[in-house]
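name: query_chain
kind: protein
chains: 1
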Amino acid sequence: MIYFATAAFGIAIALIIAVATQLAPAQPRAVARRLLELGQRSDEDSLQQRRRRQERAQQLGALLEWLGAALARTNNPAARNVLQHAGYRHPNAAAIFWGARLGLMAVLGLCGFLVGPVFGAGIVGAILGALWCAVLGWLMPAFYVGSRAKARQKDIQRALPDAVDLLVVCVEAGLALNQALVRVAAEIKHVSRVTSEELVLVNLEIRAGVPREDALRGLGERTGVADVRSLVAMLIQTDRFGTSIAQALRVHSDTARTKRRQRAEEAAAKTTIKLVFPLVLFVFPALFVVILGPAVITMVRTLSQFGPGR
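structure:
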């Protein structure tokens, strides 16, 4: 009986293990199938949300374009250049920009006029608040576009020496200038996405039939960076006179790296002047309080003992 019970117990354990090994993979498959279904549903929901956002953005863009259509017809090259430098190259970008300025001016002005009486301001205060908010709404889009343009220009200026170095390597390896630009656009993407997009746009214009000289000039006008314009002028001149592109690029690469080092040294030299204001306004008062505070308290307590009535 002992041997029989032992054999039965072993067979039962073996059957339990076999059943567990058969059922265990079924649960992860079901879980994976359920997770896949949930992932597909989430992808569909995100796609629908993206479509709704795009529709709302298109409706808002159409409204802003209608508001700023009249001002966009005026010849304002400064605003167009700033929009181009900021990366807004849509044909209706100028109309949307002016529409945003007008719309924000009207909305913020109305909000300032309505909020003024809530804080106890009279009719004059409400009008002044509306005027202040309207001016703020008029200036906010211009400030945003200008800051975006400066950020893009700084990014291009910072990545330009590396791009020129890659261009030198590609040209000296035997690639033509067009193929070298394609290769540099693919490699510089990891360093500066903006520079890569500009070079890709140059390559697309050349493939579309635009002369290389015009495409390079367009690069300088779109970016608005002085270093890019000098590089474009050098490439155009080298291509026109038939001189060595590799040698000219190497000289320009050395110059670009020297300029970048000089900018870094200039920024480092300016830090001492910029630190004066935080030191005077925040650090020095705290030091005075910590150092002179106990002495002043002791003096006040000592002098108070000799006051009248003591």
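note: Residues 67 and 99 are 5 Å apart (CA to CA).
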